[in-house]
């Protein structure tokens, strides 16, 4: 086999070496005239739906027989487990034409690795159409208070709005653990629930084999423990992967579980609605009017929502700049040496000049009413707002016309 045909992490054991050809890699540049819309846009979904199943140039790589010349299901037009007849057909194909779907992964990609778990296919745009109703399980006020504390501390739910947060709390179902030594989840199994600990304690084990093994040491090594307010099991539900650890009770305990469908539906709908809300908001921001829908969609994905009460300080004069802000609702003002130099309302932005010039904040931003802001961190600011940098540099803040402008 020639050196050029070898690929990381090794050679492909399923390819006939006599029929190998040199790889022909092509760089496909995006046409500036082609406008890529956001996935939340109706035209995007309609263009990518339908019976044809085409997802990109070259058709759907996952359609059975669509690219394999009638030889059955294939991936990117060829099966690594094909028969000799398939290999002969492959050898006669020649170089791929420009625009064709090409293999974008190494020959031995994922061979011998642990596979994922198949799960339900959910469409975030059709919750109402499917008639899905989240489950509701009654709880005492004391239980709700404890669960609210536990859920709010979990990064998965930190971005949910009040209604979505309440849906999570209502959907949690009590799971009593009657004794010590009960395996709640086992490494290698499919995930069905995410758990929050109300009381009791649990030990966490990981086995190097990737699953529980027979024998006294079958659980593997103890890597940690969790108690009241802790949680576990979310990764298997997020990524449809087998359980990464075994969790065993050390005493009589009480858990609250969130089932996989509710877990995925709430998070999926939350992410979709959040993006759609931000895209609508960003369309109203004059600064971003020159950006393409796809560019605004990327900004929407990078934003975080933060609420401030009236009289709160969002930015302090003299502090280093670490974020850029867009005002979603409410009113705020910029103060330079205690003097008001600018007012802000919905759609206005601030905090940009300290990031552009890597200088300390030259003014403080104080809320006049309760406000909600969209925050974009330094890295996202540098990466996503390059096209409007010159517009931001023109912004001036001044007390009146007789005084020189100051940066915010």
UniProtKB/TrEMBL annotation:
Protein name: cAMP-dependent protein kinase regulatory subunit
Keywords per UniProt: cAMP, cAMP-binding, Nucleotide-binding, Phosphoprotein, Repeat
Gene3D superfamilies: Jelly Rolls
Stretches with biased composition (Low complexity): 73-83
GO molecular function: cAMP binding; cAMP-dependent protein kinase inhibitor activity; protein kinase A catalytic subunit binding
Keyword Amino-acid biosynthesis: no
Family in the record: Belongs to the cAMP-dependent kinase regulatory chain family.
